[in-house]
Known about the structure:
Largest sheet: none
Distance between the termini: 52 Å
Mean pLDDT: 82
Structural class: mainly alpha
Shape: elongated
Strand content: under 5%
Amino acid sequence: MCSVTRLAFVFSLGLLALGSDSIDSAQREALSIHDRTRSASSDVADIHKVLDAGTDALADAIRGLDRERQQRLLLLPLIDTAIQQAQAEVEKAEQALIARAAELKTSQGSLDEARTALGLCERRIESARQSERNAFAASKPFKASVDLVESRTSKFTKLSADLEVVLTGSPAIAQAQQAVDKRAQALRQLRNNDPPNEAAIAAASRQWIDAKNKLTAIRRNLIGQNQPYAAALDELRLAQGELAALKQRFEDSLDALPAVAEARKVRDEARKGVGEREVAASAAQSAAGAAHVAVDQSKTNVVLLHEMKLNADGQLRQIQASLDALRSGLSKAAAKAESASKDLSGALTSLRSVTDALDSAESAIASARKEARDARCDAEAARHEAEQAKLDARSARREADEARREAEAAKRAAEKPKSN
Length: 420
């Protein structure tokens, strides 16, 4: 502001050299300078208000971010402790898994042994049964029944051969067989036609079936008339029925025989042991599966906690960066306000200098004509200086608005980690 002071001094000397008209004009110019300076002062006051509001917003944002930072700093040791606990749980779960796997292996081995013993019992039962079957097959009742069936089978086979010779020489059967062959030939010819006549084929099929049924009826009638054949068939069926009944009675009584019964008793005990070991093996399998799940869950918890720590570290770095940016913005806003205040103070000092010079010049109006002309020029320069100060004040106001907007944006950024 040294140049403004010099201009005020020159302005005062100029007033001494000017006449009354020039003095009046200078007074009006001084009043204009005073008004512009007062406007600039008002602008600077508004700037200070905006800066104060922005400073308060920045301070609130800084305090909020600092609280978030403290929370994150307190959270990190807790996460580290949780990670250590989770890793200890993983080790504990892995040890439990090893123990459950050993139990499962032992149970499975015991189950295999029981199943092997059960298989041996089954083979002993079958061996006992086979021994009894062999003894039954060598018994006189069974051999007599088998011999009777074989004898009657031989008799029936001979009578069947004799009957077949009779049937083959029967004119009625020969005639019926010729009818069957004729119907079959006619059916084959119809099927070979192109295109085939489906209705004719269906009618020929029915005729062929009827012819076969007639042949069967004739044979059955002739067989029924042969009494020796019918008697031999009845005797054979009776002998076969007696043999089957003898076998069934033996099979029904087989499991009650002492050797088989004792083997079955041992087998039943072995089955019970297998059942108990299967239950134990199933329980061991379930326990091993649960141990696997516990290990996987513990490892998942460790991974999640590590991710949580990484997120907390990242958020802490973001908060620190936001704090640094807000503090830098606050420092810049304070510097701009200080600069605007200095410019306003200089302008006010210049105004007072001009006013004092005007008062002095009024007493020396006669001798100040020439100096007044020079003072007018200096006053014009002072006016430009005041306008420049006003422009500086407006620029400072815009910068203060920008600082306030930056503070509000920083405050919103500070609130975002809270929501996360």
